[in-house]
Protein 1
Amino acid sequence: MTEAAILSTRDQSRADVVQWTCPHGQHAGRGCVTCYHASAEADPSLPLWDVAAWFTTARPIPIRALQDVHRHDRGLALTQPSTPLVYLLSGQVRAALGAEAVAGVVGFLLQNRHIVDEFTVTEIRAVHF
Ligand SMILES: [Zn+2]
């Protein structure tokens, strides 16, 4: 099962917004610190999600900070596909819902403001095994 959303402030239907709201009322694309912490000790019986979140930043993220993400967190990777100032944060997390999985992964950015202080998530994807 794949759930994906291209986020824009203009044309997002109400149904999409509901689908991508985590149990704490945060939009998955904005991230949720509670989901981020929950994913660290998720029940192993919960589904495993392959999450990808593309985001843009106002300033480039130093290469060193990109590489540090690995060491730093359980299986998350922060890469720069090709376009300047567009980044991809990806990883596998366990969560009941795709929205929780994405909110948890994006929550990593909220917890690590030294990596990126301001970001806008433009597209999210959660694939469920
Ligand atoms: Zn949450």
Note: The two ends are 7 Å apart (CA to CA).
Protein 2
Amino acid sequence: MPVKVESFDSLDGAARALSAARSARFLGGGTLLMRAVNDGDQSFDTLVRAVDPASRQVRSEGDGVTIGAGVTMAEVVAHRDLSFLAPVARVVGGPAVRNMATVGGNLFASSPYGDFTAALLALGARLELVGQGGRGIEIDEFLRDRERYVGSIVRTISVPRPRDPGAFRFAKVSRIKPKGIALLTIAAYLPQSAGRIRGARVAYSSMGPRPLRATAVERALDGQYLDAATIEQAAAVACDGIEPHTDGLASAWYRREVAAVHLKRLLTGERR
Ligand SMILES: Cc1cc2nc3c(=O)[nH]c(=O)nc-3n(C[C@H](O)[C@H](O)[C@H](O)COP(=O)(O)OP(=O)(O)OC[C@H]3O[C@@H](n4cnc5c(N)ncnc54)[C@H](O)[C@@H]3O)c2cc1C
């Protein structure tokens, strides 16, 4: 089936076309969508794209930074104001993928992808969708019911910048270095006040169909000093409430076994 491509010079124009079409998809960098086209995916017949410079902008505002959804991983790596996210973007695919793959597209990527989204989840990002009057939604809410937003366009992602850069930690676990697909990704935001962790957010990707919070780990960390005893307690509940899946990369059993090990390494600072 031929696929039609419609181009617009604004995200608003693209959003109108998407809502009028029966089976259209918004095209970001195309690293997943074009692969679907090549694989003969019949679930859409139109690709809608926008050449809107606003979707490629990065703005620093107060304690946060707002990233256009069309910003690529390579642009994240290169941008001075996004240095806290550079280690995350740097491990998404190889150079060719990073030159195309966008932050917006990563939000919709199914497991085993979504490394960048796990980091955004740990940091408590907020998304602005086209046509929502700038209201914005929490990334937790977006991920809870992500299918609902297929057909919407994410305009920007606002991310609080960690005051202490050491409070944000990230590890991608893959079997093939340096650019293998993750069998597990862990992102942790561990702000401290008077030496104790306050408001821990820990997220995994590749431990379920979409990036998710490790709430039992967060509870074990919150209010505690990040010492050996706390780290043991957090590792002991690494997979509580989480049902990892089996795929070609790893079994659910293996994911459960290694999650605690890698979480412990991340928390002790052995890996960042
Ligand atoms: C070889 C290879 C290696 C990869 N390695 C990794 C990896 O290591 N880690 C990782 O996380 N991912 C990886 N990916 C997956 C993918 O490249 C990334 O997840 C990427 O960020 C997807 O973004 P995109 O712009 O290319 O999305 P697209 O392919 O353009 O779109 C993907 C989905 O997102 C939707 N979408 C895109 N932009 C928006 C928007 N602004 N608003 C609403 N919906 C939107 C599309 O409609 C589509 O449903 C890899 C892919 C390949 C092919």
Note: The chain has three domains: 4-50, 53-160, 165-268.
Protein 3
Amino acid sequence: MIRTKGRACTGKRRHDTEEQAEEHRRRLIANGAVRLTAYRCRNQACRGWHVGHLPKPRH
Ligand SMILES: [Zn+2]
């Protein structure tokens, strides 16, 4: 078993490509979700893309 450090990806939708993750993100935003981002998973066992919330915005 590989323990994930940092961002966990269990329970999240996994996408093989950035394009697929972006499409998923756009659909969520169209449904009213805000501040979502597609990011590359750092989990070596996953290596996919996920859609998650952005970290605290800095202005
Ligand atoms: Zn992952």
Note: The mean pLDDT is 84.
Protein 4
Amino acid sequence: MGSCTFCGKAAGFLRKSHKGCKERHEIGKRQIIAIARKAGLMGGDLKNAEDEIENVAKSSYIHTPMMNRLVASGWEAAVEQAFEDGILTLQEEQKLSEFQEHFSLSRKFLDTNGAYTKIVQGAVLREILEGNIPDRINVSGQLPFNLQKNEQLVWVFEDVNYYEEKTRTRYVGGSQGVSIRIAKGLYYRTGAFKGERVQTSETIHADTGLLGVTNKHLYFSGPLKKFRIKFDKIVTFEPFSDGIGIQRDAMTAKPQSFATNDGWFTYNLITNLAQI
Ligand SMILES: [Zn+2]
């Protein structure tokens, strides 16, 4: 006779748990995520939310490490939701960070699936959309970019794959129909980034390196290629699910693209900085 993995009582021949216990456990998991999600979005009485979560955990056979993971999942769902209707607002950012503090969730823990990074990116985009140059990144060590006077570094992408086209071909990009005008800029929701980079025999993976974004230029630095491009020399930006494509304003210029693994952030960041 095995004993139930949930309540510990006899479960019956060849059984690992009672059906009722398992059901209660699964419902409890969903309830904790829902409570955390709501508290992360709406704020309110966080102590009350915490008590509620602990009660559900106790009555649903959910141990503390699992409870903490579920609370983090609820917070991640709140982050997703905060970006649904547009860019993360300052108020949303504050509520999410109050929740993080109240439940003592570490940045590393919350960034398991990239949700913490998304908050930072959202704050950077919001500042740019309001017409300001963000100053939120701390770079450790020397960067290979020779910035000009009054030039401000806004973001650095690492391990970026840089591609060049041998001929001037047209990109097949994502839909542009899901932008929202916010403050001074144009914000593209995540749904805009379904366009894949069209890989042809003409597409050359030219290098892998750092992509720096300032208020004036794009900088690329890899073992083989090092260059900068002034924003006003770029005539078109193309959104890709994993990055951005650009076309420079010169007869001889070939399409170039940068795969950062995050088309949503890269495209919103660069197109809006280029407008300031
Ligand atoms: Zn049981």
Note: Residues 2-113 form one domain.
